[in-house]
Amino acid sequence: MGLREKFKVVIIVGVPGVGKTTVTKLMLEKARNEGINIKIVNFGDYMFKAAKNMKLISHRDELRKLPLRTQCKLQLEAAKRIVEDSEKLDKDSFLIIDTHSLIHTVSGYWSGLPLHVIEILKPDMIAVIEASPEDIVKRRMRDREIRMRWDERTLDEIKFFMELARNSALTAGMFVGAAVPIIINKEGKQEEAAIELLSKMKSL
Ligand code: ATP
Ligand code: AMP
Ligand code: MG
């Protein structure tokens, strides 16, 4: 087992509602215009699909309320399946994984990127998307789906969770030697964040 996949692996993390999916999709458009081949997967989609097939839950936000051992099993399955589904990517391609470095489960804070997961995913980069707690609250108010997923209610609680999530990303990066850029997704500036993300990816 090598240290890296033949293609480049970039994990995108950030607290719910910060704009991971938005920035990642914008980056994809820009990369395609430059002829760069990119595959984007959502880790939560893989976990949710497996959980739904097992008739465990019917909504993706119920994932983090399942018994922790069940979540752990689904998490491992998702990581393995993502790599299996990406075997056709060549050395100039990127696999982008939209996920979380920290999950607020019913059992407590829980890493989205524990060693057994990052050993499978072998990321070259773990990009942390951040924004001010005030901007995150605004986004959350506009998006009902995302609003439901929050346990952090006050600005201080959001800030605290963002700091824990950033530290979790740095810790995961340390174990596999991944770069950990922090990309600020300012209000109305999602294009800039996407350009910065792509530029960091091209440096790998
Ligand atoms: P989750 O972890 O729940 O999947 P996410 O981090 O993927 O959330 P998005 O779904 O990308 O977040 O974005 C949340 C909301 O914020 C969306 O309504 C999106 O349009 C909006 N948004 C994202 N980036 C910006 C930005 N820079 N300025 C203003 N609104 C933004
Ligand atoms: P998302 O749509 O990205 O917010 O993901 C939906 C749900 O999937 C999250 O709320 C988590 O419960 C779960 N999830 C996503 N990524 C991970 C991960 N790396 N490890 C464990 N659970 C995850
Ligand atoms: Mg998302």
Please tell me about this protein's structure.
With 204 residues, the protein is an alpha/beta fold. It has eight helices and seven strands, in the order E-H-E-H-H-E-E-E-H-E-H-H-H-E-H. Strands 2-3-1-6-7 form a five-stranded parallel sheet, with helices on both faces. Strand 4 (102-105) and strand 5 (108-111) form a beta hairpin.
Please state the overall shape, judged from the principal axes of the Cα atoms: globular
Structural class given helices, strands, pairing? alpha/beta
Largest sheet: 5 strands, parallel
C-alpha Rg (nearest Å): 16 Å
State the end-to-end CA separation.
20 Å
Mean pLDDT: 95
- Which architecture does the CATH hierarchy give at level 2? 3-Layer(aba) Sandwich
Unreliable spans are none
* Strand line-up of the largest beta sheet: 2-3-1-6-7
Topology readout:
Layout: E1 8-13, H1 20-33, E2 38-42, H2 43-53, H3 68-84, E3 94-98, E4 102-105, E5 108-111, H4 115-121, E6 125-130, H5 133-142, H6 144-147, H7 155-176, E7 182-184, H8 190-202
Parallel strand pairs: 1-3, 1-6, 2-3, 6-7
Antiparallel strand pairs: 4-5
The chain binds adenosine-5'-triphosphate, adenosine monophosphate and magnesium ion.
